[in-house]
């Protein structure tokens, strides 16, 4: 009998692999990981206690409806319970959105470069990616994205702030763009770094969604809230979209630990705001230092900075690693560097100064 392999979907061929930030070496000179946009602070007050309490019930399934977390989010954002859905990080919710909207023959529009999961989850769904280049200033080209809409378009991602450039779309341009999008095309405002924004002209996606049934907002507890290891994110959307997200969710996908930790984090908002404020101050210090060294840095409203280095990208990443920090390189394009502890940022700035002298 001849041997054949199981038949797999053709769409899976050639899918790019998601590349997580490289960890700091355990036995080398590298001391700090600035490659994954993680929060350098420990979990917020109350989180460890809530997680510890939940460990006694590992033999039980979590609350599949995330009742406590959904209720907390409903109060926090002033939205109906039926407009909320959870998932394994905002990227998990994004994949659910594609399952709900897009398949073979459909198109998904997003800026490029943007979040590297977009092309992966789009291809998994069987849909076709339509990548619209960023402007020379590393910002979403919303006019070009609107021009790219066809009758096959099902979903549009707007990453705000954009990962990995940190740049933002402001209120007037976003509203103008949304006015051009057909009402049957879903626009996903991916706001994973919302808490770090200080530009008053950048709209809160939740305010935008209220009057626009085709707008969905993604948020996460992985970044500002410091729960990257627990994988919990959520969407705010009108009932048809939120209901579809609940249908496409992996049953029991969000653990009870993650749910309880997220609730405790929401209840520690004063501490959260203080920590985020400190990181924003560090961001300003790092950007000013880079400018002083002669670097061109796009204005960032996230917890990272972007340096476009082209063919020198991998050399720069290796230089930083040797100096003691790991950054996130995108070969041939540039590096994204998380704002971390003061000590880590100081090492990074010494590395950038030394590298610039070699140019």
Automatic annotation (TrEMBL):
GO terms for molecular function: aromatic-amino-acid transaminase activity; histidinol-phosphate transaminase activity; pyridoxal phosphate binding. Pfam families: Aminotran_1_2. It is an enzyme of class 2 (transferase). Keywords: Aminotransferase, Pyridoxal phosphate, Transferase. GO terms for biological process: L-histidine biosynthetic process. It catalyses: an aromatic L-alpha-amino acid + 2-oxoglutarate = an aromatic oxo-acid + L-glutamate. The keyword Acetylation does not apply. Its EC number is 2.6.1.57. It comes from the Bacteria. Its cofactor is pyridoxal 5'-phosphate. The modification N6-(pyridoxal phosphate)lysine is found at residue 223. Residues 33-349 form the Aminotransferase class I/classII large domain. The keyword Iron does not apply. Aminotransferase that catalyzes the conversion of aromatic amino acids and 2-oxoglutarate into corresponding aromatic oxo acids and L-glutamate. Homodimer. Belongs to the class-II pyridoxal-phosphate-dependent aminotransferase family. This is Aromatic amino acid aminotransferase. The lineage of its organism: Bacteria, Bacillati, Actinomycetota, Actinomycetes, Kitasatosporales. The gene is pat.
